[in-house]
Design goal:
By secondary structure, the chain is an all-alpha fold. It is 75% helix and 0% strand.
Length: 349
């Protein structure tokens, strides 16, 4: 086989046939679902508001109207769910492509654990108590965790294989969890601050908190949305990617920057929420195939749908109390994780 025919075959493999799965149709469907779930997030809670009233509050807000005031108070929570959801979904999809591992997820590979440990250290040593201060600790922790996990997985002859990355991430998450527990046991005040943050809740956020992370979320999203073609070629292996003109090392570094920005921002804003970045890419592959040029933008829409739906269910499942979105996300994601592991296929994409 000639070099030209090999490259042609590689390009064909890197661009899966998705016409039958209609990714444009799913883009429209998921966008409509996101709008609907956002309206439900504004309407559902301890005090339910009719959808027409929600729309009226958005279009013609009246501060003297009690229902409108309730809708306005829920807008912050809904926007937080949108920002956190798109961050985790996009980061998880990109991580699975970079690692060529269907088990890759900001939680499973230790990225969220690194951010959480850094935030706890900031609370314990420096008294950090706001999202703007959590943010920088979360970035540092995410970056350090990503580097350490990759270095540990790179040990040995075969280098950083997908399976070794998953094992290194799981070990790192366990170790960081132990360090967090040690710091929290030694400080009651740190424990109180951490307790309200670590459950992964969308309630109690502010516009200032969202504004603090939004520039980094936008930057990270732009970076990762531009890596679709790179991830398609990485799926063919590093040698083939180089043959197609890509630079795998540089591409992974750029993707890692976007992942750290998104994971750090999401963790600083809402705490460590797991499994969103694992579940969403698998659901989307069943709908539109494995072309990352579609998976990345669709994950940006689908992940907030899943997270906001979990948050809405959590508000009504145990009235008059509520279950944090992070707990329900884990309940939904754990069966998917088990199904992927039990499938018994090679852990690569």
């Amino acid at each position: 086989m000639t070099m030209n025919s090999t490259l042609a075959l590689a390009k064909e493999s890197a661009t899966p046939i998705t016409a039958a799965r209609s990714p444009l149709v799913w883009l429209v469907v998921l966008s409509a679902a996101l709008v609907l779930v956002m309206l439900l997030s504004l309407a559902v809670g301890a005090r339910s508001i009719p959808l027409p009233t929600v729309v009226d509050a958005i279009m013609n807000f009246d501060a003297a109207n009690g229902d409108h005031a309730v809708v306005a108070s829920r807008m912050v929570r809904t926007m937080a769910g949108l920002v956190v959801g798109l961050s985790l979904g996009l980061a998880g999809t990109s991580m699975q492509g970079v690692a060529r591992n269907p088990l890759a997820d900001p939680g499973i590979l230790g990225i969220n654990a690194g951010a959480s440990l850094a935030v706890v250290a900031g609370i314990f040593f420096l008294g950090a108590a706001s999202v703007s201060s959590y943010l920088w600790f979360a970035f540092i922790g995410s970056a350090v965790a990503a580097v350490v996990v990759y270095l540990v997985a790179s040990l040995g002859r075969s280098g950083a294989t997908p399976v070794k990355l998953a094992l290194a991430g799981a070990a790192m998450a366990a170790g960081m969890g132990s360090l967090m527990s040690a710091m929290l046991v030694m400080s009651q005040s740190s424990l109180e601050l951490f307790r309200s943050w670590q459950v992964g809740a969308l309630a109690g956020k502010s516009w200032e908190s969202i504004g603090a992370v939004l520039p980094f979320v936008l930057l990270g999203a732009v970076i990762l949305l531009c890596t679709g073609r790179l991830l398609n070629t990485l799926a063919l292996g590093d040698d083939m990617a180089r043959g197609l003109g890509q630079r795998p090392g540089l591409g992974r570094a750029i993707s890692a920057l976007g992942i750290v920005l998104l994971c750090g921002s999401a963790t600083a804003l809402a705490g460590p929420i797991g499994f969103i970045g694992l579940v969403v890419p698998h659901l989307l592959r069943g709908l539109v195939g494995s072309d990352y040029r579609w998976l990345l933008p669709l994950s940006l829409i689908a992940a907030p749908v899943v997270l906001l739906l979990a948050d809405v269910v959590g508000r009504v499942i145990l009235l008059p109390g509520e279950v944090p979105a992070g707990i329900l996300a884990a309940m939904m994601g754990a069966p998917v994780f088990i199904a992927v592991v039990r499938r018994g296929k090679k852990a690569e994409l």
